[in-house]
Please model this.
Amino acid sequence: MPPTNSDESRDLAFQEAIDADRTVEPRDWMPERYRSTMVRQIAQHAHSEIIGMQPEGNWITRAPSLRRKAILLAKVQDEAGHGLYLYAAAETLGVERRELTELLITGRQKYSSIFNYPTLTWADVGAIGWLVDGAAITNQLALTKTSYGPYARAMVRICREESFHQRQGFELLSELSRGTAAQHEMAQDAVNRWWWPALMMFGPPDTESPNTAQSMAWKIKRVSNDDLRQRFVDMTVPQAQALALDLPDPQLRWNDARDHYDFGPIDWEEFRQVVSGHGACNAQRIAVRRAADEDGAWVREAARAWEGRQSSRTSAA
Amino acid sequence: MGGPAEQPDFRSVSHAEDWPLWEVFLRGRRGLSHQHVGSLHAPDPELALQNARDLYTRRGEGVSIWVVRSTEVHASDPDDQGPLFDPPSDKAYRHPTFYSVPEDLQL
Ligand SMILES: [Fe+2]
Ligand SMILES: [Fe+2]
Model:
């Protein structure tokens, strides 16, 4: 049968291909809403990796040992890499890097609100690695099976690098937790502050997540917000026990009937406040990213001018 | 107080263009061919190679890098997939399994 060009039959064929688990590749025809959803999701994911360098980056110069400093540098450098893989994946959909950077620094595109919380002590570096990277891995593992090929491939690469991020955080907290009373208290305080924001990273509950159905049908999203959150809680509770640290939730307990941990209600009002710009660090994060962009402008221009001169020399020779 | 979401400030936004895009190919180890691993922006081949090293080989993933300007890659049209790649499916005789040979022989 000859292919027809009507949008409706193309939409149908697209959905059939998705249902048959066929990966979507950059030059394939795709519904405009699939493309725009994908661009937005990948771009926001990329922005999160880039902005996510700041809270931990704050501690690089104050790391307590050379070993810890080298580890933290490597981790933050990885996050820059993750951002770049993801921007490249978004660019396969016909947007430009510059456009995405501008959407970020003008506040028109968002990033994960977890990075609007401050890193108050050295233990926060551990809590971020253990909980924030742990939550990110749970989310990203599910995304390795997302329907858009370049995004899925970036996720595979990223997941391979993430496991060290979580482990170094766990190890850091474990040392503090078993250290002096003051160190233990610092570790516990960091976990108290990061636990709930980490649970919010999976997004609003399924009942209030209007885009989930379409994203699931297109297999952009393979597991729902609440299911991922549950998976993360179940995985993390035994780790907290091993760390000898408490998770700040009196309602947290194993439920034999559900075969899962029950946990207390999440403060979604706090989430909404932070998402809409009223977190502790929203303005600072954007200001820092914007300053980096402006301060680097002359370097980008100089490199371009140098290339222009080199290539005019070779063509004159 | 308005957060960044309410008050976009366009004054300082630079409208400079991106550096050109490059495709990156890595040889994982000697004896293997180069494989596409992703892309990046760089102003010239030298910096493209350096950036590729920083971005794609932080854990010993490669022993050799190729970078190619993305605009230099010519690709087949996905809509031609049928005419281009389907014909071999009715040429089963191109595969060894098409032929029957005595079972007790190594062939
Ligand atoms: Fe990351
Ligand atoms: Fe990470």
About this structure: The longest strand of chain A covers residues 253-255. Residues A 49, 79, 82, 158, 162 surround fe (ii) ion (ligand 1) (CB under 6 Å). The interface with chain B takes residues 3, 25, 27-29, 74, 77-78, 81, 84-85, 88, 91, 96-98, 102, 105-108, 110, 153-154, 157, 161, 276-278, 282-283, 286, 290, 293-294, 297, 300-301, 303-304, 306-307, 310-311 of chain A (CB under 8 Å).
